[in-house]
Amino acid sequence: MALFNIPPELWRCGTDGLVANLVIIKLNRTCPHAAPVFNHCCAIHDDCYDNQRGQIPCDTQLCDCMAFYVANDDEAAKCENETKAACGIVREYGHDAYAESVKNASAPAKEKYLRLPEELPSVKEQYKKVFEKCDQQHATLSSCALTYDLCRRGSFIEKSPEGCLLNLVRCLDATKPDRDSNPECDVAIEQALHKMVEKEYHEESHEENHEEIHEEEGEGSGSGHGDVNVLMMQEVLLNKTYIQRVYLQVVRQASSYSWIVYFSFCLTILICCIFSIVGIAQCNKDDHYRDTETINLHVNTTHSATSPASKRSATSSRSETMESEVSSKKK
Asked: TM spans, by residue (predicted)?
């Protein structure tokens, strides 16, 4: 049984034919357009089991993958209850499947399970090298190619060709954390990515530059300055290494942009809290200083009133008053 143009041999959800068919029926009824993304989660899970990376980490990765699509895709959100149930079943009964998966790690992959991107024929040879060098992730790599083909055919989501290619680049680039250190695999994937970007940019830049050259010739300015600018632009656009590196850097940084925003927000909040604390402390310090000055002034005033000099001054004043009164009486 195939699900939404996904060949049966590439359907990854379900430990056997019966369970897989039950999953397909359920998805067909509830969220058929989300089948490719859930299938990709299962492909990553299969590779994780085959490489014996630990049942608990593998099951957690599967649940997180499905939860991500449920939270970010309207179609996948329709199957939220089903994904939660599947997650619980895998965690509860997955130990037998995990134990059996060790046999798959040493078994050579059959060709029918290795999917090349049919909608991107110029990259097929590079993709074959990826399968040769990255022998720990055949299921994931096949799912990346399948998802790209379905995207280009408009089978499950409306996307531009550039959007489909961007998803494929991200899919391949995201495989690195899920495998052991393998420089040969890394190089093979980088070469495949470069080939994809090269094709995309070469076609676009060739058409644009061809039009620009004809426009410059039509103007007939004769100065040659415009021709130099066109040639310089051609050199930049056709500089494969430059374009490839910039494009891949943008793709990789785009996935981490949300984290940059999040940490920037947290840092801003922290700085505001620090300034608030410092301001409150300074206000308390000023209040304490004013209170101290008031107390000192009161003490000094009281001390001056009770000092001996003050008493002598008061006695002298009273004596002078009495003498003045006596003198007045005599008169």
From this structure: 259-281
Q: What is the pLDDT of residues 260-286, one digit of tens each?
A: 666 777 888 888 888 888 878 777 666
Q: Sign of torsion, CA 162 167 172 174? A: positive
């008169």: which residue's tokens?
331
Buried b (16+ CB within 10 A) or exposed e, 148-180: bbbbbeeebbeeeeeebbbbbbebbbebeebbe
| Neighbour count for residue 182 (Cβ, 10 Å) | 16
Q: Which residue has the tokens 């999953």?
A: 23
Q: Give the tokens for residue 255.
A: 């996935």
Among the listed residues 70, 252, 106, 225, the one whose alpha carbon sits nearest the alpha carbon of residue 171? 252
Residue burial 253-274, b: 16+ Cβ < 10 Å; e: rest: eeeeeeeeeeeeeeeeeeeeee
Count of CB atoms situated within 10 Å of the CB of 231: 12
